[in-house]
Design goal:
Rossmann fold; 2 domains; three-stranded mixed β-sheet
Length: about 325
Amino acid sequence: MFDNSNILITGGTGSFGKKFVKTILTNYNPKKLIVFSRDEIKQWEMAKSYPEDNRLRFFIGDVRDKDRLYRALAGVDYVVHAAATKIVPIAEYNPFECVKTNVLGAMNVIDATIDQKVKKVVALSTDKASSPINLYGATKLASDKLFTASNSYSGEHGTRFSVVRYGNVAGSRGSVIPFFKEIREQGTLPITDLRMTRFLITLSEAVKTVEYAFREMIGSEIFVKKIPSVKITDLAQIIGPDCKMEEVGMRPGEKLHEQLISSDESSHTYEFEDYFKILSPQSSFICRVYNKLTCNLINFVTLLILIYSPFVLLIKAIAASTSPHVPYGLD
């Protein structure tokens, strides 16, 4: 699908962005893959890994800047929106900045992709957007709602929007695994709460989920990969088997247990082999009506067959009994 196409990823110098770029350039042959981000040092370092690949382009820009997005999105077919303010405590103490990036930035991406006639957009989300209790989760929930609702007004341009939601990415910047590895030599690993659990997904699985979403999306879905939940104490024991664990208390905005699908979303969630699809309430209603009508039609046809079949057999029997009899051996 990505062969001979133009792709743009916002926040493309992050952990996911690096893995996504490597995967696309290895497995596909796009015309152009644009990394859109605001950190020139990270772009410079990333560009050194692809010195001779002219398919890769770098754009300095911020999703808060709609004009810059318009320029970057010219001629683009597919967009992955990965840019976000993600660290929970930082979002709690810088709420205005979090809203500007995660909500206003999402609105800018939506407007710009529709106006530039992008074909498909997949936005990355988080388990913290499901029944959120912190600002980061609340802004990502707002972002999810914006992207799924935008299919209704993309109009004649036909841009389609969907969301991919997953948990903590194992080994990504700012996550617990590299943090534990950094400090395990001290002999003590801080645990906010000994009962705490987290969903974990690898970078490869995250990228595959986005690829799957691009292939399967109709518009307005939230794709959720089936991933395991682990106890933080088990993770600490694996990373630092000889370390002591010190319970330090939960940070502002932290949950004891995250969830990928809320109880309210479960009524319009459909399960597949490796994924869940959360449909928008409007889409789910249409599906339920369609399924009901289809079921009723099948039942009606079945009833007609049951009623009609005995009459057919009776007519055949009458016809057979009244047909001229030819003695055996004379025909």
